[in-house]
Write a structure and sequence with these properties.
The chain has 441 residues and is mostly helical. Helices cover 71% and strands 0% of the residues. The chain contains 24 helices and no strands. It has helices at 8-22, 30-42, 46-58, 66-78, 82-94, 102-114, 118-130, 138-150, 154-166, 172-184, 188-200, 208-220, 224-236, 244-256, 260-272, 280-292, 296-308, 316-328, 332-343, 352-363, 368-380, 388-400, 404-414, 419-434. Helix 7 (118-130) packs antiparallel against helix 8 (138-150), helix 10 packs across helix 11 and helix 19 (332-343) packs antiparallel against helix 20 (352-363). The longest helix has 16 residues, at 419-434.
Protein backbone atom coordinates (compact mmCIF):
# COMPACT_ATOMS: atom_id res chain seq x y z
CA UNK A 1 0.00 0.00 0.00
CA UNK A 2 1.82 3.15 -1.30
CA UNK A 3 0.51 6.35 0.25
CA UNK A 4 1.24 10.00 -0.34
CA UNK A 5 2.26 12.42 2.36
CA UNK A 6 -0.66 14.13 4.10
CA UNK A 7 -1.77 17.46 2.69
CA UNK A 8 -4.03 20.11 4.28
CA UNK A 9 -7.10 18.98 2.36
CA UNK A 10 -6.91 15.50 3.87
CA UNK A 11 -7.88 16.73 7.34
CA UNK A 12 -10.98 18.37 5.92
CA UNK A 13 -11.90 15.19 4.04
CA UNK A 14 -11.43 13.19 7.25
CA UNK A 15 -13.71 15.53 9.17
CA UNK A 16 -16.32 15.32 6.46
CA UNK A 17 -16.08 11.52 6.53
CA UNK A 18 -16.65 11.57 10.28
CA UNK A 19 -19.73 13.74 9.83
CA UNK A 20 -21.19 11.20 7.39
CA UNK A 21 -20.17 8.24 9.56
CA UNK A 22 -21.80 9.69 12.67
CA UNK A 23 -24.69 11.56 11.02
CA UNK A 24 -23.52 14.92 12.35
CA UNK A 25 -25.36 17.66 10.45
CA UNK A 26 -25.92 15.32 7.50
CA UNK A 27 -27.80 12.04 7.06
CA UNK A 28 -25.66 9.13 8.20
CA UNK A 29 -24.08 7.59 5.09
CA UNK A 30 -21.28 5.05 5.47
CA UNK A 31 -20.73 4.97 1.72
CA UNK A 32 -19.98 8.71 1.63
CA UNK A 33 -17.86 8.38 4.76
CA UNK A 34 -15.86 5.63 3.10
CA UNK A 35 -15.15 7.74 0.03
CA UNK A 36 -13.99 10.68 2.13
CA UNK A 37 -11.77 8.53 4.32
CA UNK A 38 -10.25 6.72 1.34
CA UNK A 39 -9.41 10.00 -0.39
CA UNK A 40 -7.80 11.35 2.78
CA UNK A 41 -6.06 8.05 3.59
CA UNK A 42 -4.44 7.87 0.15
CA UNK A 43 -3.12 11.36 0.84
CA UNK A 44 -1.45 9.96 3.97
CA UNK A 45 -3.90 11.21 6.60
CA UNK A 46 -3.36 8.95 9.66
CA UNK A 47 -6.75 9.56 11.27
CA UNK A 48 -8.51 8.66 8.02
CA UNK A 49 -6.47 5.46 7.80
CA UNK A 50 -7.42 4.59 11.37
CA UNK A 51 -11.08 5.30 10.63
CA UNK A 52 -10.95 3.06 7.56
CA UNK A 53 -9.62 0.34 9.82
CA UNK A 54 -12.68 0.79 12.05
CA UNK A 55 -15.06 0.62 9.09
CA UNK A 56 -13.50 -2.56 7.72
CA UNK A 57 -13.41 -4.10 11.20
CA UNK A 58 -17.11 -3.42 11.79
CA UNK A 59 -18.40 -3.84 8.25
CA UNK A 60 -19.56 -0.24 7.93
CA UNK A 61 -20.08 0.59 4.26
CA UNK A 62 -17.92 -2.37 3.27
CA UNK A 63 -18.03 -6.13 3.96
CA UNK A 64 -16.40 -6.90 7.29
CA UNK A 65 -12.75 -7.71 6.60
CA UNK A 66 -10.32 -7.95 9.50
CA UNK A 67 -7.26 -8.34 7.28
CA UNK A 68 -8.08 -5.07 5.48
CA UNK A 69 -8.78 -3.42 8.83
CA UNK A 70 -5.36 -4.55 10.07
CA UNK A 71 -3.64 -3.09 7.00
CA UNK A 72 -5.26 0.32 7.51
CA UNK A 73 -4.49 0.25 11.24
CA UNK A 74 -0.89 -0.62 10.37
CA UNK A 75 -0.63 2.38 8.01
CA UNK A 76 -1.93 4.73 10.69
CA UNK A 77 0.14 3.11 13.45
CA UNK A 78 3.34 3.61 11.45
CA UNK A 79 2.59 7.33 11.56
CA UNK A 80 2.23 7.16 15.34
CA UNK A 81 -1.57 7.35 15.56
CA UNK A 82 -2.19 6.03 19.11
CA UNK A 83 -5.77 4.74 18.66
CA UNK A 84 -4.66 2.77 15.58
CA UNK A 85 -1.68 1.37 17.49
CA UNK A 86 -3.99 0.30 20.30
CA UNK A 87 -6.57 -1.31 17.97
CA UNK A 88 -3.88 -3.07 15.96
CA UNK A 89 -2.41 -4.37 19.23
CA UNK A 90 -5.80 -5.92 20.05
CA UNK A 91 -5.71 -7.67 16.67
CA UNK A 92 -2.25 -9.09 17.38
CA UNK A 93 -3.22 -10.13 20.90
CA UNK A 94 -6.29 -12.01 19.63
CA UNK A 95 -4.96 -13.16 16.25
CA UNK A 96 -7.67 -11.17 14.42
CA UNK A 97 -6.80 -10.49 10.78
CA UNK A 98 -3.13 -11.17 11.57
CA UNK A 99 -1.15 -14.00 13.15
CA UNK A 100 -1.30 -13.87 16.94
CA UNK A 101 1.82 -12.18 18.27
CA UNK A 102 1.86 -11.06 21.90
CA UNK A 103 5.27 -9.40 21.57
CA UNK A 104 4.01 -7.24 18.72
CA UNK A 105 0.83 -6.49 20.68
CA UNK A 106 2.80 -5.41 23.70
CA UNK A 107 5.09 -3.18 21.63
CA UNK A 108 2.12 -1.44 20.01
CA UNK A 109 0.32 -1.01 23.34
CA UNK A 110 3.47 0.54 24.80
CA UNK A 111 3.77 2.96 21.87
CA UNK A 112 0.16 4.04 22.30
CA UNK A 113 0.42 4.19 26.10
CA UNK A 114 3.47 6.43 25.84
CA UNK A 115 1.18 8.90 24.06
CA UNK A 116 -1.36 8.62 26.87
CA UNK A 117 -3.86 6.32 25.15
CA UNK A 118 -6.06 5.08 28.05
CA UNK A 119 -7.21 1.89 26.28
CA UNK A 120 -3.57 0.92 25.66
CA UNK A 121 -2.86 1.40 29.38
CA UNK A 122 -5.90 -0.74 30.19
CA UNK A 123 -4.89 -3.59 27.89
CA UNK A 124 -1.25 -3.48 28.99
CA UNK A 125 -2.46 -3.71 32.57
CA UNK A 126 -4.59 -6.72 31.71
CA UNK A 127 -1.65 -8.38 29.92
CA UNK A 128 0.60 -7.96 32.95
CA UNK A 129 -2.17 -9.01 35.34
CA UNK A 130 -2.92 -12.24 33.44
CA UNK A 131 0.62 -12.99 32.30
CA UNK A 132 -0.65 -12.99 28.72
CA UNK A 133 2.45 -13.11 26.52
CA UNK A 134 4.46 -11.51 29.34
CA UNK A 135 5.60 -12.53 32.78
CA UNK A 136 2.90 -11.69 35.36
CA UNK A 137 3.74 -8.41 37.03
CA UNK A 138 1.03 -7.16 39.44
CA UNK A 139 2.85 -3.89 40.10
CA UNK A 140 3.10 -2.97 36.41
CA UNK A 141 -0.46 -4.15 35.89
CA UNK A 142 -1.73 -1.83 38.60
CA UNK A 143 0.35 1.07 37.31
CA UNK A 144 -1.06 0.83 33.78
CA UNK A 145 -4.61 0.20 34.95
CA UNK A 146 -4.43 3.16 37.32
CA UNK A 147 -3.35 5.46 34.48
CA UNK A 148 -6.08 4.18 32.22
CA UNK A 149 -8.74 4.38 34.93
CA UNK A 150 -7.74 7.95 35.78
CA UNK A 151 -8.69 8.87 32.19
CA UNK A 152 -12.11 7.27 32.66
CA UNK A 153 -11.37 4.22 30.47
CA UNK A 154 -13.98 1.59 31.39
CA UNK A 155 -11.71 -1.38 30.56
CA UNK A 156 -9.11 -0.03 33.01
CA UNK A 157 -11.76 0.59 35.67
CA UNK A 158 -12.93 -2.98 35.21
CA UNK A 159 -9.33 -4.21 35.52
CA UNK A 160 -8.92 -2.24 38.75
CA UNK A 161 -12.06 -3.95 40.03
CA UNK A 162 -10.61 -7.36 39.18
CA UNK A 163 -7.32 -6.54 40.93
CA UNK A 164 -9.20 -5.37 44.03
CA UNK A 165 -11.28 -8.57 44.08
CA UNK A 166 -8.24 -10.81 43.59
CA UNK A 167 -5.96 -9.29 46.22
CA UNK A 168 -5.58 -11.05 49.57
CA UNK A 169 -7.72 -10.34 51.44
CA UNK A 170 -10.11 -9.13 48.75
CA UNK A 171 -10.98 -5.45 48.81
CA UNK A 172 -14.68 -5.73 47.95
CA UNK A 173 -15.43 -2.07 48.64
CA UNK A 174 -13.02 -0.88 45.97
CA UNK A 175 -13.94 -3.74 43.64
CA UNK A 176 -17.57 -2.69 43.82
CA UNK A 177 -16.66 0.94 43.23
CA UNK A 178 -14.50 0.23 40.17
CA UNK A 179 -16.97 -2.23 38.69
CA UNK A 180 -19.75 0.34 39.14
CA UNK A 181 -17.77 3.03 37.33
CA UNK A 182 -17.10 0.71 34.40
CA UNK A 183 -20.60 -0.76 34.41
CA UNK A 184 -22.20 2.65 34.23
CA UNK A 185 -20.21 3.21 31.03
CA UNK A 186 -21.63 0.00 29.57
CA UNK A 187 -18.70 -2.37 30.20
CA UNK A 188 -20.44 -5.72 29.96
CA UNK A 189 -18.06 -7.80 32.10
CA UNK A 190 -18.16 -5.14 34.82
CA UNK A 191 -21.97 -5.27 34.71
CA UNK A 192 -21.86 -9.06 35.05
CA UNK A 193 -19.32 -8.99 37.89
CA UNK A 194 -21.34 -6.34 39.70
CA UNK A 195 -24.44 -8.52 39.39
CA UNK A 196 -22.45 -11.42 40.80
CA UNK A 197 -21.19 -9.33 43.71
CA UNK A 198 -24.75 -8.44 44.69
CA UNK A 199 -26.20 -11.92 44.14
CA UNK A 200 -23.42 -13.95 45.76
CA UNK A 201 -22.69 -11.43 48.53
CA UNK A 202 -18.95 -12.01 48.20
CA UNK A 203 -18.58 -8.30 48.76
CA UNK A 204 -21.59 -6.15 49.62
CA UNK A 205 -24.64 -7.55 51.36
CA UNK A 206 -27.19 -9.36 49.23
CA UNK A 207 -29.13 -6.96 47.06
CA UNK A 208 -31.05 -9.02 44.56
CA UNK A 209 -32.68 -5.95 43.00
CA UNK A 210 -29.21 -4.66 42.15
CA UNK A 211 -28.13 -8.12 40.95
CA UNK A 212 -31.17 -8.30 38.70
CA UNK A 213 -30.48 -4.78 37.41
CA UNK A 214 -26.85 -5.40 36.48
CA UNK A 215 -27.37 -8.90 35.11
CA UNK A 216 -30.16 -7.39 33.03
CA UNK A 217 -27.83 -4.70 31.69
CA UNK A 218 -25.22 -7.30 30.72
CA UNK A 219 -27.87 -9.59 29.24
CA UNK A 220 -29.19 -6.72 27.10
CA UNK A 221 -25.73 -6.60 25.55
CA UNK A 222 -25.93 -10.29 24.73
CA UNK A 223 -23.77 -11.65 27.55
CA UNK A 224 -24.55 -15.39 27.77
CA UNK A 225 -23.37 -15.77 31.38
CA UNK A 226 -25.70 -12.97 32.47
CA UNK A 227 -28.66 -14.64 30.76
CA UNK A 228 -27.67 -17.92 32.42
CA UNK A 229 -27.49 -16.37 35.88
CA UNK A 230 -30.85 -14.67 35.36
CA UNK A 231 -32.19 -18.09 34.44
CA UNK A 232 -30.81 -19.49 37.67
CA UNK A 233 -32.42 -16.69 39.70
CA UNK A 234 -35.85 -17.18 38.11
CA UNK A 235 -35.54 -20.95 38.16
CA UNK A 236 -34.70 -21.13 41.86
CA UNK A 237 -36.72 -18.12 42.98
CA UNK A 238 -33.59 -16.41 44.31
CA UNK A 239 -34.41 -12.76 44.92
CA UNK A 240 -37.35 -12.91 42.50
CA UNK A 241 -40.63 -14.86 42.39
CA UNK A 242 -39.90 -18.33 41.04
CA UNK A 243 -40.78 -18.43 37.34
CA UNK A 244 -39.57 -21.52 35.42
CA UNK A 245 -40.92 -20.19 32.11
CA UNK A 246 -38.93 -16.96 32.53
CA UNK A 247 -35.89 -19.04 33.49
CA UNK A 248 -36.28 -21.08 30.32
CA UNK A 249 -36.39 -17.92 28.19
CA UNK A 250 -33.08 -16.71 29.61
CA UNK A 251 -31.57 -20.18 29.26
CA UNK A 252 -32.64 -20.27 25.60
CA UNK A 253 -30.83 -17.03 24.84
CA UNK A 254 -27.71 -18.18 26.70
CA UNK A 255 -27.87 -21.60 25.05
CA UNK A 256 -28.10 -20.01 21.62
CA UNK A 257 -24.90 -18.12 22.45
CA UNK A 258 -23.15 -21.39 23.32
CA UNK A 259 -23.51 -21.41 27.12
CA UNK A 260 -23.13 -25.10 27.98
CA UNK A 261 -24.77 -24.96 31.40
CA UNK A 262 -27.84 -23.28 29.90
CA UNK A 263 -28.10 -25.99 27.24
CA UNK A 264 -27.91 -28.66 29.92
CA UNK A 265 -30.50 -26.94 32.13
CA UNK A 266 -32.90 -26.66 29.20
CA UNK A 267 -32.47 -30.38 28.64
CA UNK A 268 -33.40 -31.03 32.26
CA UNK A 269 -36.44 -28.73 32.03
CA UNK A 270 -37.66 -30.42 28.85
CA UNK A 271 -37.08 -33.81 30.46
CA UNK A 272 -39.11 -32.90 33.54
CA UNK A 273 -41.67 -30.66 31.83
CA UNK A 274 -40.74 -27.68 33.98
CA UNK A 275 -41.23 -24.24 32.45
CA UNK A 276 -42.23 -25.95 29.21
CA UNK A 277 -44.07 -29.05 28.03
CA UNK A 278 -42.33 -32.35 28.69
CA UNK A 279 -40.62 -33.32 25.46
CA UNK A 280 -37.94 -36.03 25.36
CA UNK A 281 -36.98 -35.04 21.81
CA UNK A 282 -36.30 -31.46 22.91
CA UNK A 283 -34.42 -32.74 25.94
CA UNK A 284 -32.28 -34.88 23.68
CA UNK A 285 -31.60 -31.90 21.39
CA UNK A 286 -30.51 -29.62 24.23
CA UNK A 287 -28.42 -32.29 25.93
CA UNK A 288 -26.87 -33.00 22.53
CA UNK A 289 -25.66 -29.41 22.15
CA UNK A 290 -24.01 -29.47 25.56
CA UNK A 291 -22.65 -32.98 25.01
CA UNK A 292 -21.01 -31.94 21.74
CA UNK A 293 -19.15 -29.29 23.71
CA UNK A 294 -17.80 -31.98 26.02
CA UNK A 295 -20.13 -31.64 29.01
CA UNK A 296 -19.96 -34.96 30.86
CA UNK A 297 -23.35 -34.63 32.57
CA UNK A 298 -25.01 -34.01 29.19
CA UNK A 299 -23.16 -36.95 27.64
CA UNK A 300 -24.48 -39.14 30.46
CA UNK A 301 -28.05 -37.96 29.81
CA UNK A 302 -27.64 -38.61 26.09
CA UNK A 303 -26.54 -42.16 26.82
CA UNK A 304 -29.44 -42.83 29.19
CA UNK A 305 -32.11 -41.35 26.90
CA UNK A 306 -30.84 -43.18 23.81
CA UNK A 307 -30.48 -46.44 25.73
CA UNK A 308 -34.09 -46.15 26.90
CA UNK A 309 -35.43 -44.98 23.54
CA UNK A 310 -36.70 -41.68 24.97
CA UNK A 311 -36.98 -39.02 22.30
CA UNK A 312 -35.42 -41.31 19.73
CA UNK A 313 -35.19 -44.96 18.75
CA UNK A 314 -33.26 -47.05 21.27
CA UNK A 315 -29.71 -47.73 20.14
CA UNK A 316 -27.40 -49.51 22.54
CA UNK A 317 -24.25 -48.85 20.51
CA UNK A 318 -24.80 -45.09 20.26
CA UNK A 319 -25.79 -45.00 23.93
CA UNK A 320 -22.55 -46.76 24.83
CA UNK A 321 -20.56 -44.21 22.87
CA UNK A 322 -22.07 -41.28 24.78
CA UNK A 323 -21.73 -43.01 28.13
CA UNK A 324 -18.10 -43.87 27.40
CA UNK A 325 -17.34 -40.21 26.64
CA UNK A 326 -18.76 -39.18 30.01
CA UNK A 327 -17.06 -42.07 31.78
CA UNK A 328 -13.71 -41.10 30.29
CA UNK A 329 -14.11 -37.75 32.05
CA UNK A 330 -14.42 -39.52 35.39
CA UNK A 331 -18.19 -39.60 35.72
CA UNK A 332 -18.93 -42.53 38.03
CA UNK A 333 -22.63 -42.56 37.17
CA UNK A 334 -21.71 -42.92 33.50
CA UNK A 335 -19.52 -45.95 34.30
CA UNK A 336 -22.42 -47.43 36.27
CA UNK A 337 -24.90 -46.89 33.43
CA UNK A 338 -22.38 -48.28 30.97
CA UNK A 339 -22.18 -51.41 33.14
CA UNK A 340 -25.97 -51.72 33.18
CA UNK A 341 -26.13 -51.33 29.41
CA UNK A 342 -23.48 -53.99 28.85
CA UNK A 343 -25.32 -56.29 31.24
CA UNK A 344 -28.62 -56.02 29.35
CA UNK A 345 -29.91 -58.62 26.93
CA UNK A 346 -29.13 -57.30 23.44
CA UNK A 347 -28.16 -58.63 19.99
CA UNK A 348 -25.20 -60.90 20.59
CA UNK A 349 -26.10 -61.28 24.26
CA UNK A 350 -24.95 -59.43 27.39
CA UNK A 351 -21.33 -58.26 27.46
CA UNK A 352 -20.55 -59.35 30.98
CA UNK A 353 -16.77 -58.79 31.06
CA UNK A 354 -17.33 -55.21 29.86
CA UNK A 355 -20.08 -54.74 32.45
CA UNK A 356 -17.75 -56.00 35.16
CA UNK A 357 -15.03 -53.56 34.12
CA UNK A 358 -17.44 -50.62 34.04
CA UNK A 359 -18.84 -51.44 37.49
CA UNK A 360 -15.31 -51.74 38.87
CA UNK A 361 -14.39 -48.31 37.51
CA UNK A 362 -17.41 -46.72 39.21
CA UNK A 363 -17.01 -48.79 42.38
CA UNK A 364 -13.45 -47.63 43.09
CA UNK A 365 -14.71 -44.05 42.64
CA UNK A 366 -17.01 -44.64 45.62
CA UNK A 367 -20.29 -45.00 43.69
CA UNK A 368 -22.38 -47.21 45.98
CA UNK A 369 -24.87 -48.54 43.34
CA UNK A 370 -21.91 -49.75 41.27
CA UNK A 371 -20.33 -51.35 44.34
CA UNK A 372 -23.55 -53.30 44.94
CA UNK A 373 -23.80 -54.24 41.25
CA UNK A 374 -20.20 -55.46 41.32
CA UNK A 375 -21.02 -57.49 44.42
CA UNK A 376 -23.90 -59.23 42.60
CA UNK A 377 -21.66 -60.07 39.65
CA UNK A 378 -19.16 -61.77 41.97
CA UNK A 379 -22.00 -63.44 43.86
CA UNK A 380 -23.47 -64.90 40.66
CA UNK A 381 -20.22 -65.44 38.76
CA UNK A 382 -21.34 -63.13 35.93
CA UNK A 383 -18.38 -62.27 33.71
CA UNK A 384 -15.98 -63.61 36.32
CA UNK A 385 -15.46 -66.54 38.67
CA UNK A 386 -17.97 -66.74 41.49
CA UNK A 387 -16.34 -65.31 44.62
CA UNK A 388 -18.46 -64.79 47.75
CA UNK A 389 -15.58 -63.14 49.63
CA UNK A 390 -15.21 -60.37 47.03
CA UNK A 391 -18.99 -60.15 46.73
CA UNK A 392 -19.36 -59.69 50.50
CA UNK A 393 -16.54 -57.12 50.52
CA UNK A 394 -18.26 -54.94 47.88
CA UNK A 395 -21.71 -55.44 49.40
CA UNK A 396 -20.30 -54.39 52.76
CA UNK A 397 -18.71 -51.23 51.30
CA UNK A 398 -21.93 -50.36 49.47
CA UNK A 399 -23.98 -50.95 52.63
CA UNK A 400 -21.66 -48.65 54.57
CA UNK A 401 -22.63 -45.96 52.05
CA UNK A 402 -26.30 -46.51 52.81
CA UNK A 403 -27.09 -48.58 49.72
CA UNK A 404 -30.05 -50.92 50.28
CA UNK A 405 -28.96 -53.32 47.52
CA UNK A 406 -25.63 -53.65 49.35
CA UNK A 407 -27.41 -54.64 52.57
CA UNK A 408 -29.58 -57.15 50.74
CA UNK A 409 -26.63 -58.64 48.86
CA UNK A 410 -24.50 -58.92 51.99
CA UNK A 411 -27.26 -60.92 53.71
CA UNK A 412 -27.65 -63.11 50.62
CA UNK A 413 -23.99 -64.14 50.42
CA UNK A 414 -23.43 -64.28 54.19
CA UNK A 415 -26.03 -67.06 54.41
CA UNK A 416 -23.83 -69.08 52.01
CA UNK A 417 -20.43 -68.33 53.61
CA UNK A 418 -18.47 -69.71 56.52
CA UNK A 419 -17.68 -67.49 59.49
CA UNK A 420 -14.03 -67.57 58.44
CA UNK A 421 -14.82 -66.30 54.92
CA UNK A 422 -17.12 -63.59 56.31
CA UNK A 423 -14.32 -62.40 58.60
CA UNK A 424 -11.93 -62.42 55.64
CA UNK A 425 -14.36 -60.35 53.57
CA UNK A 426 -14.86 -57.88 56.41
CA UNK A 427 -11.08 -57.45 56.78
CA UNK A 428 -10.81 -56.85 53.02
CA UNK A 429 -13.57 -54.25 53.18
CA UNK A 430 -11.86 -52.36 56.00
CA UNK A 431 -8.50 -52.51 54.22
CA UNK A 432 -10.03 -51.33 50.92
CA UNK A 433 -11.75 -48.38 52.59
CA UNK A 434 -8.56 -47.45 54.41
CA UNK A 435 -6.78 -47.32 51.05
CA UNK A 436 -9.62 -45.38 49.34
CA UNK A 437 -10.55 -48.46 47.32
CA UNK A 438 -7.44 -48.14 45.19
CA UNK A 439 -6.00 -51.42 43.90
CA UNK A 440 -9.10 -53.52 44.71
CA UNK A 441 -11.36 -55.33 42.24
Amino acid sequence: MTLALADPRSAALTNLGSMYAQGLGVPQDFGQALQCYESAAMRGQAQAQANLGVMHAHGQGVPQDFASAARWYEAAAEQGEPAAQSRLAVFYANGTGVEQDFERARALYEQAAAQGDPLAHANLGIMFANGQGVAPDPERARNHLTQGAASGESAAQYGMGVLSAQQQPPDWVHAQDWYTRAAEQGHVRAQFNLGHLYSAATGPAHDYDQALHWYGKAAAQGDPAAHYNLGVMYGSGTGVPRNPAQAAEHYRVAAGLGEVSAQFNLGVMALLGEGMEQDFGQALAWFGQAAEQGDAAAQLQMGVLIANGQGTQANAEVACQWLQLAANQGDANAWFNLGQLHQRDQPGGPRLPQALGAYRAAAVMGFAPAQAALGWMYAKGDGTLQDFVKAHMWFNIAAAGGNAAGVEGREFVAARMSAQHIAQAQDLAREAQKNNLQGYD
